[in-house]
Amino acid sequence: MKKYLKFSKITFSIALGLVLFTACESDDSEDPNPTPSGQDYIVKSQFETDAEGWVITGDAQGGYTAASYSPDGGVQDGYIYADDDVAGGVWYFTAPNNYHGNKNEYYGATLKFSLFQDSNMSDQFDNADIIFRNGDQQITYVHDPSNYPSLEWTDYSIKISADNGWIKGDFDSGIAATEADMLAVLANVTEFSIRGEFEVGSDNGGMDNVKILME
User: Fold this and answer.
1) Which of 27, 88, 91, 93 could form a disulfide with 58 if both were Cys (CB 3.0 to 4.6 A apart)?
2) How do beta strands 79-83 and 68-70 pair?
3) What is the pTM of this model?
4) Looking at per-residue confidence, does 16 or 197 come out higher?
């Protein structure tokens, strides 16, 4: 009996050690950039292992094509990027199907993402920075030019609501989007794009850590 109890204590000690070791390993693999307390993400793309279905549209890499992927160098782990074709257009990071459909839940949420641009930074231009499209209907967000991305990762946080500078139609329409306008587009999102090109000349740029959060 004494021998059995001694063996049981050793077995328990080994099992406890394995549990503690496993718990430590789990902690090390946690998201190094977690969603802040009190916030729940609706959808996110952190590019930890691949481009997650994002594509490049417009004047880069020959038009509509899968985004290039780097496994490291991002805000955390990997990121996506594209090289400009310098053909006179504007290129975008365009989201996959899980950002499409009825997304009225996006209204009132906050869009967060990080960008960098590698360019000579000498001839930056205005254009639509964020586009949500429902067929022919569109809502657009335009950054202040002083807030364009730099060579380092630049973080953005933009409220998806009518009182936050969203425009109905093209970026130069000047028509402020109402809540009804935004909900009409978000009712059936067919495109969600984030601008990657800010330089008139040659450039390339990257994106990481896209999240749409309820706060």
Assistant:
1) 91
2) antiparallel
3) 0.81
4) 197
